[in-house]
Design goal:
By secondary structure, the protein is of the alpha/beta class. It has 3 domains: 7-88, Arc Repressor Mutant, subunit A, CATH 1.10.10; 92-164 and 272-295, Periplasmic binding protein-like II (D-Maltodextrin-Binding Protein, domain 2, 3-Layer(aba) Sandwich); 166-270, 3-Layer(aba) Sandwich (D-Maltodextrin-Binding Protein, domain 2), CATH 3.40.190. It is built from 10 helices and 11 strands. It has helices at residues 7-19, 22-29, 33-47, 63-90, 106-120, 133-141, 203-211, 228-236, 246-249, 283-295, and strands spanning 52-54, 59-61, 95-101, 124-130, 147-152, 160-174, 195-198, 221-225, 242-245, 259-263, 269-276. Strands 3, 4, 5, 6, 9, 10 and 11 form a 7-stranded mixed sheet that branches. A two-stranded antiparallel sheet has the order 1-2. Strand 1 (52-54) and strand 2 (59-61) form a beta hairpin. Helix 1 (7-19) crosses helix 2 (22-29), helix 1 (7-19) crosses helix 3 (33-47) and helix 1 (7-19) crosses helix 4 (63-90). The termini are far apart.
């Protein structure tokens, strides 16, 4: 009879690889350090190799231990997917979903959509994480997140993408700006303006430039900020102009009487979409989730 590692033993190994500390790893697994240590020894007996070198102060994972831990993480994700698949068949849109969202969407959209989602699916609980797109996609690929809400276009590889709606850009300037009295702004008008943009790493920066057909190398970037709120405050002080997505324009509180929002004569926009692993056992549920976003009234 062939003996195989148990999922519990593999869980102990992945926790030890993550923490490099028996006590911290045991806390992650909700067991005592002696239980975890015994489980690692049993795993080594079954495999016939050493996965960790132990000293009084440190734990060093062996090269083969790292390889086994990487495979173990995938096995544990697959086992979890089996449980999720069974649960979703019994009672769809219930339980927990680890949900990622980018900073230029989360504060403006989620307060509007979460009440509708709770009303439609009261047994569903979202655990939210806000980060930039690249980090969210990495966490999604590693199974740390189940689904993410991002702005498109963006290279999402082999993930499944459900486009929800377009988010139109508005030109934002101080009320004393020469363009403030205009009913619309042409794309050519933007070329010689001191733009205030988010810093590199925020996809809103690239989406705004691309949508308005402005070359990043030729844009007159006056200031780079870490948040939309900072950009708005700078515009309110007359330091420059910026492009604000409609989602934020409808939600943000602008300094009283200091900012004018003007539509672009040739509409420019980014797309908002949900992204998940194509292999996810909850794909059917995620399509239902996308329908809630698409059918919500954001006015």
């Amino acid at each position: 009879m062939k003996f195989l590692p148990s999922l519990k033993q593999l869980e102990y190994l992945t926790a030890l690889t993550q923490t490099r500390h028996f006590s911290n790893a045991s806390d992650l697994c909700n067991v005592t350090p002696s239980t975890l240590s015994a489980g690692i020894r049993d795993l080594e007996d079954i495999l016939g190799v050493s996965v960790a070198e132990r000293t009084k102060r440190t734990v060093i994972i062996t090269p083969i231990g790292h390889e086994i831990a990487a495979r173990a993480r995938q096995l544990l994700r697959d086992a979890e997917d089996i449980m999720i698949l069974a649960s979703s068949e019994r009672d769809p849109m219930t339980g927990n979903i680890k949900f990622g969202v980018i900073p230029t969407i989360g504060p403006f959209l989620l307060p509007k959509i979460l009440p509708a989602l709770e009303k439609e699916y009261p047994k569903l609980k979202l655990y939210l994480r806000e980060e930039q797109t690249a980090k969210l996609l990495k966490r999604l690929s590693e199974g740390e997140l189940d689904i993410i809400l991002i702005a498109l276009p963006y290279d999402t590889g082999s993930f499944t993408v459900s486009v929800l709606f377009d988010d139109t850009f508005f030109f934002a300037c101080h009320v004393d700006h020469p363009y403030a009295t205009r009913k619309s702004i042409t794309l050519d008008d933007l070329n010689d303006q001191p733009l205030l943009l988010l810093e590199d790493g925020h996809c809103l920066r690239d989406h705004a430039l691309d949508a308005c057909r402005i070359q990043s190398s030729s844009a007159r970037v006056q200031f780079e900020a870490t948040s939309l709120n900072t950009l708005v405050q700078m515009v309110a002080e007359g330091i420059g102009v910026t492009l604000i997505p409609e989602m934020a324009a409808d939600t943000m509180t602008f300094p009283m009487g200091k900012i004018k929002l003007i539509p672009l004569k040739t509409p420019a926009s980014r797309k908002i979409g949900l992204v998940w692993r194509s292999s996810s056992p909850r794909s059917t549920e995620f399509n239902l989730l996308a329908d809630v976003f698409k059918n919500a009234n954001f006015s």
